[in-house]
Amino acid sequence: MKKTFLHNLPAKIAAIPMIATVLIVFIGCTIWTVYYSFTNSRLLPTGKFVGFDQYERLFATSRWNISVTNLLTYGSMSLVLTLSLGFLLAVLMDQKIRFESAFRTIMLYPFALSFIVTGLVWQWIMNPTLGLQGTMRRLGWESFTFDWIANPRMVLFALLIAGLWQGVGFCMILMLAGLRGVDEEIWKAARVDGIPTWRTYISIVLPMMRGVLVTAVVLIGSGIVRLYDLVVALTNGGPGISSEVPAKYVINYMFGGGNIGQGLAAATMMLLTVLIIVIPWAYLEFGGKGRRT
Amino acid sequence: MTGSEQSRNSADAVEPRGPRPKPFFTPKKIMIYSTLIFFSLYFLFPLYIMVVTSLKTMPEIRFGNIFALPGQINFDAWARAWTSACTGLTCQGLSPGFWNSVKITIPSTIVSIFIAAVNGYALVNWRFKGADFFFSVLIFGSFIPYQVMIYPLVIITRELGIFGSLQAVILIHTIFGMPILTLLFRNYFSALPQELFKAARVDGAGFWRIFFEIMLPMSLPIFVVAIILQVTGIWNDFLFGVIFAGTQNYPMTVQLNNIVNSAQGTPEYNVNMAATVLTGMVPLIIYFVSGKLFVRGVAAGAVKG
């Protein structure tokens, strides 16, 4: 017993930070949050156990419901557009074009910038009086309207424009790597059979890139659930509460509202969402076949 | 022998060989390039607007057009953004934020990479019981939204007496950088030949000696990737800085957001854009200088989100 403990002792000591992170942060803090989401904690997380009260209040709060609807709307548009634009651009980049590296550099640089910078630049461009709309009107196009950022019904599209600007390039890089990984022979065979190029992409190459696609979906999906900085910088949830998102709801209630229980319940809902995305993926990738990363 | 050599060698080869050279402007090519150029404009547009606006004067912005080049290159807004723009509490510009970001990024990068490198090394070469379990939970945990763990972490850092200090931010960046960096180093070390490690063991070298004298010198390439990943990631962070750093230590991203989004009086758009350019400068320089290594870094780090 003692021998097994002392075996590899330096390695175990060196792994203490990792073990502590796993036990205290990833497991401990998560359980803590889920546990206290069932209490009536307000200013301090000490309240008594109240069952599902926080969740009932959460789903009775219009701000939360708007946040969730926004996330679903923004998320589905963002997922579909990021994937399809990423794939389209990757296919175009794969046509043995000139200046490939220049195009790639241009498409990926926004990804290097923080969401705060992204949000603020687009906030300026979409500024209704001095930005694109104002310029067009001063140039004589009086009816030109591009006020999405100030329009509660369109504000999610404003977020989408900025979000796509930041993320499409990276999706393109992933897809391009996937395309380049497809065996040349497949292309030759398809050409011999006289299958048109676009059909080869859709019905042969795309299914072969399943691994890359699934990875992209999981990455984009968990990124969408975390959407926070961009909203803070671009709209700060406005106009009104029309562009609120769950991640922002959590932070506002935890650190600004004196209502920690609500924040914790909302955080638990975020956790649940991510588990719904990640568990099936982890099962498919690593579960059945016993394959490791 | 290739076709061209053949035709040069044989005197009677007058017939053209190979595929007919395609004209450059085929409809397909026009379509491809116009689509790519259209998207390039979308990607470049904000950079252009950001730089151009920062060089204009306020009257020029108010009466002019957002696309127009500045009448006269004017760096006043840059100076204001750097030294005297108001970040909500004080009016010292972005420079304190820049130095805070430097003070956060350098130690966070060093500490997080060192710990992750040791983790990866222990996982590959000094396997112990339960190591795989901890590693799997670590990777799985990287998908948990930060919001789920952030409140208990505030309590923990408060109990440790470091909440609102640089140490707290360093700790948080080390924790959340650990999954992906550990994965990176684990994969790298497991690709190195095991014989090296075994030979050193036979010679009697221990855990740390092998790490410092054999593994570290051999892992320079992966260190560069990890550094790029961490420096850009930590520099661009907003959430951890705003919660854990404390008002005095707000990183540049937080101060930038305060300058633009909570400014009293008339907003100075040129100063705002200059501040935005300044904040984006560091990751952009890293991106342009490191080229393909940046792509490797972000591709590896995408899990971190």
Question: Which SSEs are present, and which pair or pack?
Answer:
The complex is a heterodimer of chains A (293) and B (305).
Chain A: H1 2-6, H2 9-14, H3 16-36, H4 53-60, H5 62-93, H6 100-112, H7 115-125, H8 132-138, H9 155-180, H10 184-192, H11 197-208, H12 210-226, H13 229-234, H14 246-255, H15 260-287
Helix pairs in contact in A: 3-15, 4-15, 5-9, 5-12, 6-9, 7-9, 9-12, 10-11, 12-15, 14-15
Chain B: H1 3-9, H2 27-54, H3 58-63, H4 76-83, H5 95-125, H6 131-141, H7 146-159, H8 166-191, H9 194-202, H10 207-218, H11 220-236, H12 239-244, H13 252-261, H14 269-290, H15 292-301
Helix pairs in contact in B: 2-14, 4-14, 5-8, 5-11, 5-13, 6-8, 8-11, 11-14, 11-15, 13-14
Task: Give your account of this protein's structure.
The complex is a heterodimer of chains A (293) and B (305). By secondary structure, chain A is mainly alpha-helical. Helices cover 72% and strands 0% of the residues of chain A. Chain A is built from 15 helices and no strands. Chain A has helices at 2-6, 9-14, 16-36, 53-60, 62-93, 100-112, 115-125, 132-138, 155-180, 184-192, 197-208, 210-226, 229-234, 246-255, 260-287. The mean pLDDT of chain A is 88. Chain B is mostly helical and 305 residues long. Helix content of chain B is 71%, strand content 0%. Chain B is built from 15 helices and no strands. The longest helix of chain B is centred in the middle third of the chain and has 31 residues, at 95-125. The model of chain B is unreliable at 1-11 (pLDDT under 50). Chains A and B meet through helix 2, helix 3, helix 5, helix 6 and helix 7 of A and helix 2, helix 3, helix 5, helix 6 and helix 7 of B.
